[in-house]
């Protein structure tokens, strides 16, 4: 009914399933809240989140500073253009 190859294949598949089940149970035990590795991982994620939040605040400040400098530069350009116009009129005049 079953050949030797079929029996070996079924035994191998069964072994793989048992191994997977044991590994899943082992991982489930390691994923507890009190596991030092999980505590460290949570602390690292919290630190990364705080760092990203600080970087976001810095980027917002820099963006506001660039906007202010751009507005001031436009005013300076307008003033310089007006000064050149007055100088040109004074030379002609």
Provide a descriptive summary of the structure in words.
With 93 residues, the chain is mainly α. It folds into 2 domains: 1-31; 33-93. The chain contains 2 helices and no strands. The chain has helices spanning 4-30, 36-92.
Topology:
Layout: H1 4-30, H2 36-92
Short summary:
This protein has 93 residues and is mainly α. The protein has helices spanning 4-30, 36-92.
Supply database-style keywords.
single chain; mainly alpha; 2 domains; 93 residues
Overall 3D geometry?
elongated
**Domain module count:** 2
- SSE order, one letter for each helix or strand: HH
Main pleated-sheet profile: none
Question: What are the segments in which pLDDT stays under 50 over at least 5 consecutive residues?
Answer: none
Assembly status: single chain
- Average pLDDT number: 87
Terminal CA distance reads 115 Å
What portion of the residues fall into strands of 2 or more residues? Answer: under 5%
